[in-house]
Amino acid sequence: MPDISTKPYLLRAIYEWCTDSGFTPYLAVKVDAATTVPMEYVRKGEIILNISYGATSSLKMDNDAVHFRARFAGVSREIYVPVQNVLAIYANENGQGMAFDVSTTAAEMPAPETDASAPAPATAPALSAVPDSSPDTAQEAPPAPDNGGDEPPKKGGRPTLTRIK
Questions:
Q1: CA 19 to CA 121: how far, in whole Å?
Q2: For the chain, where are the alpha helices, taking DSSP H only?
Q3: d(Cα 71, Cα 76) in Å, to the nearest integer?
Q4: What percent of the chain has pLDDT over 90?
Q5: C-alpha distances in angstroms, 16 versus 32, 96, 108?
Q6: Number of neighbours of residue 39 by Cβ within 10 angstroms
Q7: pTM, whole model, 2 decimals?
Q8: CA-CA distance, 88 to 30, in Å (whole number)?
Q9: 86, 29 Cβ separation under 8 angstroms
Q10: CA nearest 17: which of 100, 94, 70?
Q11: What one-character DSSP code corresponds to residue 120?
């Protein structure tokens, strides 16, 4: 019997703690071919998603993936994030939450060997980028914070998550 990961259970627990405490739960995600997210908001291969009740529709956090609908620049988008790709879940207001090591993403996972008589499993949606020809679209995306240096976080601004490896 394969080991069952605790990660999806911890994600649901931190999400519930955030909502019960009146905080806004955010999900930090490593983007790869197995994720479906708006590519114009991806920075350095990662994206931060607000998964609060008011920001999402049809949120489902199961043992394999987190999927929901959310609006980006007024356009409703379908979001699909494999649990393996979740880097962290945290409260936006105070930064408290939990970070995870993502050494192997869902796209890098080896395909499971299947029985030839078994039906083929449904695959996750594939990630595809469509280049945008309008120059004003790039200005709509919020600038990504650059915390790559050794400077301490600035006081009074928006809370950020700092990953320590």
A1: 34
A2: 7-20, 137-140
A3: 4
A4: 58
A5: 27, 13, 30
A6: 15
A7: 0.65
A8: 10
A9: yes
A10: 94
A11: P
Q: How many residues are recorded in the chain? A: 165
Q: Is 147 left (phi over 0), alpha (psi -120 to 50) or beta?
A: alpha
* pLDDT value of residue 104: 75
Cα–Cα distances in angstroms (integers) from residue 68 to residues 24, 36, 80, 82, 134, in the given order: 16, 10, 7, 12, 27
β-partners of residue 28 are 48, 88
Q: Which stretches of the chain are assigned E, i.e. beta strand?
A: 25-30, 46-50, 56-61, 65-72, 75-82, 86-91, 97-99
| Dist CA 67 CA 11 (whole Å) | 13
Q: Which amino acid is at 113?
A: E
Q: Give the amino acid at 33.
A: A
User: Residues 95, 161: contact at Cβ < 8 Å?
Assistant: yes
Walk me through the domains of the chain, giving residue ranges and CATH numbers: 1-103 (2.30.30.220)
Q: Which of 77, 72, 111, 97 is nearest to 16 (CA)?
A: 97
Q: Roughly how many angstroms between the first and final C-alpha of the chain, as a whole number?
A: 31
Q: What is the pLDDT of residue 150?
A: 54
Q: Which two tokens stand for residue 62?
A: 């199961």
Mean pLDDT of the chain: 79
Locate tokens 């299947």: which residue? 114
